[in-house]
Every structure is written in C-alpha cells, then in structure tokens.
Design brief:
Distance between the termini: 42 Å
Mean pLDDT: 85
Number of strands: 0
Number of helices: 7
Low-confidence stretches: none
Largest sheet: none
Strand content: under 5%
Helix content: over 70%
Order of helices and strands: HHHHHHH
Number of domains: 1
Radius of gyration: 18 Å
C-alpha cells in the first residue's frame, strides 16, 4: 500500500502541475487543483477501504505520513479558494489587510487549540502512535472535527486529520506571508 500510494502521489503532483499550466485564472487553477486533490484522495481511499496493513508500523506510517499528503492538499486548496474569492470580491485595502491578518492567525490558533498534539507531532514523538494513527483505535472522536472528505472510519484514524490540517495551514501561512498586502510584497 505504501509504494502504491507513493506512486499515486507522484501522479497527483503531475496532475497538479498540469492544472497550474493550463488554466487562465488564479481561481481556475485553484479549483482544478482542489478537484484533482479530491479525486486522488478518492482513488487512494478506495484502495484503502478493506485493506489490512501487514504491520502496525506500516499502518502508522501510512496514516501519519502518507495519507496527509493527499488530504492536506484538499484542505490547502480549499483555503486558497477562500482567500482568492475574498480577494476577487474587491474589498478595499483596509478590509483586505484585516482579512490577511485573520487568515495568518489560523495556524497559531490551531497550534494553541491542539497544543499537546502539536508538540507531540513536531517533536517526532511516537509513544502515542498506535493509539492515534491506527484504524483499530479510531473511536469516532474525530467525527465532529474532521473534514467532510475524511469521515469514513475505514480510511481514518483518531488524529490523522490533525496532521492534514497542520500541513495545510503551514502551507497556507507560507502563501499568505508571500502574498499579503500587509508586508507590501504582494496583493
């Protein structure tokens, strides 16, 4: 499953690059990338449902490292769409600056709201991996917090959605920093 998912991810990256080259506007690129991300996650999810990992270590690696590559892309392009649609709505300069300030704070709010998880994950700890990143230990507690594309208990664990959100918010923060009208580097 790991090798198959990695091959699928390479194909996903190629499809994303095609979106970036072939579309006439920023929102069209973002929409294409969002659709591609969703399609590739569905392909992987279809292969994952009913699949039994040969070891707990492989299952943990998949849900902690591989799956979030796909699901974080869905979240990231959703965030980009939100940002681009706001920008395209023609807000005045002050409103746009306030919007970017709020958006930039998303990552810090996530870190604060999920402090223990954030410290655990970014420190490279692994003592909770079996409880947090295997399907057998998914108690459904993520149901109210996970994204719509990630609600199937056959393809989710207790905390893999947090890894996806963290990766998406980190990428989004980089995008915002590079394009924010606050610093005068874009907009």
């Amino acid at each position: 499953m790991i090798n198959e998912a990695k091959e699928l991810y390479l194909s996903f990256e190629t499809a994303i690059e095609a979106c970036k080259k072939d579309k006439p506007s920023a929102i069209a690129v973002i929409e294409c990338c969002f659709e591609v991300a969703g399609q590739y996650w569905q392909k992987l999810k279809h292969r994952l449902v009913g699949y039994h990992f040969p070891s707990e270590a492989e299952e943990i690696y998949f849900f902690k490292t591989v799956k979030p590559l796909f699901t974080s892309a869905i979240e990231y392009y959703g965030l980009l769409a939100h940002s681009q649609l706001f920008k395209d709505s023609g807000p005045d300069g002050d409103s746009l600056k306030k919007f970017y300030c709020r958006e930039i704070q998303r990552l810090d709010k996530f870190k604060e709201a999920n402090h223990d998880f954030y410290v655990y994950y970014t420190s490279g700890a692994n003592h909770n991996d079996a409880a947090w990143f295997t399907r057998a230990n998914n108690d459904g507690g993520n149901f109210l917090k996970a994204k719509p594309h990630d609600l199937d208990c056959n393809s989710a664990t207790r905390y893999d959605y947090l890894v996806s959100t963290l990766i998406a918010l980190e990428k989004y923060a980089v995008f915002l920093q590079a394009n924010t009208p606050i610093t005068g580097t874009g907009g």
